Amino acid sequence: MTTTMPSSDNVLRTDYQKSVAAYWNAEKDPVNIRLGEVDGFFHHHYGIGDYDPSVLQGPEETREARIIEELHRLESAQAQVLIDHLGDIRPEDRIQDTGSGRGGTSFMANQRFGCYVDGVSISQQQVDFSNEQARDRGVDDKVRFHFRNMLDTGFETGSMRASWNNESTMYVDLYELFSEHARLLRYGGRYVTITGCYNDVTGGRSKAVSRIDEHYTCNVHPRSAYFKAMAANNLVPISVVDLTADTIPYWELRAQSSVATGVEDPFLTAYKEGSFHYLLIAADKV
Ligand SMILES: C[S@@+](CC[C@H](N)C(=O)[O-])C[C@H]1O[C@@H](n2cnc3c(N)ncnc32)[C@H](O)[C@@H]1O
Hints:
19% strand; methyltransferase activity; GPPMT_Stmyces
């Protein structure tokens, strides 16, 4: 279904995109690697749900391993909730993981539906890592990862039954992004995102949200921008779920772990002061 093999120059079109790609090519944060090693599903997103407080108790020697496993359970639960919103996907359907990281959500979706999954990332390292995982899992006939720009994937118009962004919308212009999703989705196809967004009601980007942007070299969008850009691109919301209260326990546990990266305090501050939300939005293409 793909056309030409993209070169680095036409995938990474701006200095900003090159810097984002460089970040993810170099990224080896233990919070992403050690959690994935628990069961081989590697995620670069956050978790939801209450944590089991007993992981913080018990023998000191095994405490760290218990916390890592618990954080991984919460990030896997997040991906399951996203997949729950993709709708009725059949084995012959094709779906897109947009900004696919090391592929964890793609493999879980393929496991759930038996469908084709195309992951796209501007990090060649991530694409290579995930394609190797697909071969090791024996699903490379159905799950494939591509070095592509999510704003211009090159995939065929109307070819996707569903597509999603799991924490990857804050790197791009939402109008350009949703225009590409609307092009790729067939009529009635489902779009889902889980994302952090800042609160229009509290008025502008808070200091804590600015620290998150700075940490990841990204640009968190206001909540309103999602709905405006969806409406402008024939994407009609069907579910909006505020996951903010559900993600706070993940951050509280992570702040007490050896895999904390320093961004825990801005996230907890932003969520608790109300300047930032963790939202799931599902929309249908009409
Ligand atoms: C925070 S990670 C999320 C990864 C994955 N969705 C997950 O849940 O594990 C952000 C991802 O977006 C990708 N990304 C950022 N800008 C992109 C772009 N313009 N085109 C394609 N991928 C992009 C990065 O390479 C990275 O894989």
